[in-house]
């Protein structure tokens, strides 16, 4: 089978303690505990979307881009149907939430070809209609939550004047930034999960002001191996003053902090790193130096 470069998980055996928390979060069956360590048993079963990352307390799992056998949805479904209807439904939701339409079609075709009943929300001929329904999510990071019916929190009154942006650079996406750019040299830097600024009302005034920034998504971004090198370059080449990593409370978001920690471990120059965790409703759950 011809291999091609694609995103796929990588397990650091030295960090892995064999706890097995990643196993239930990989319904595709790509992971097993063997000889006391989590192992990727087949490239064919790993979709590279990283649902397992946020469930590893040791930070032993990350996404890398390498030559790997193409992901095979029908082989995956052969494993999944043996685990029962709930696991099958969770897998279909996983594909849907990550907009993997072709894989989702292949999975549904597999069920139909083998006369296996589809979950109710996938029975409609027009999948576009069911996409707008409120369906409970199997992935904590993509679970639908509606805050609109909760009691409104007090909003700080303003004079109606336009609030000034504290952004002082461009680009900001971690894939695009140059870590040695002048606006990083000797600065306090924010490494922020994409969703934080939308959840945290005072993000610009309380955190971004006076700092340089890069944003990333540890769940959806591909080719994250380069992220470690860019963060390391901040430490060693730009000689940044501090790094603050801001993430959401959802499990997959912790992958961004793991990347920063790995870069720090690999760096010859040690820099203070702070972790800030933000709730889905914009509250600071924790703020600590790591």
Describe what this molecule looks like in 3D:
The chain has 290 residues and is of the alpha/beta class. The chain folds into 3 domains: 1-71, Alpha-Beta Plaits (2-Layer Sandwich), CATH 3.30.70.20; 77-138, no CATH class; 182-289, Rossmann fold (3-Layer(aba) Sandwich), CATH 3.40.50. 26% of the residues lie in helices and 19% in strands. It contains 8 helices and 9 strands. The strands form 3 sheets. The protein has a 5-stranded mixed β-sheet. It has a two-stranded antiparallel ribbon with strand order 1-4. Strands 2-3 form a two-stranded antiparallel sheet. Residues 125-138 have low confidence and may be disordered.
How many structural domains does the protein architecture include? 3
Rg over alpha carbons: 21 Å
Shape: globular
Helix fraction bin:
25-40%
- The count of helical stretches stands at 8
Unreliable spans: 125-138
CATH topology of the largest domain: Rossmann fold
Proportion of strand residues: 15-25%
CATH architecture level-2 label of the largest domain: 3-Layer(aba) Sandwich
Largest sheet: 5 strands, mixed
Question: pLDDT average, as an integer?
Answer: 81
The span between the termini is 43 Å
Question: H/E element string?
Answer: EEEEHHHHEHHEHEHEE
CATH class of the largest domain reads Alpha Beta
Summing up helix and strand content along with how strands pair, one would put the structural category as: alpha/beta
Count of β-strands: 9
- Major beta sheet, strand line-up: 6-5-7-8-9
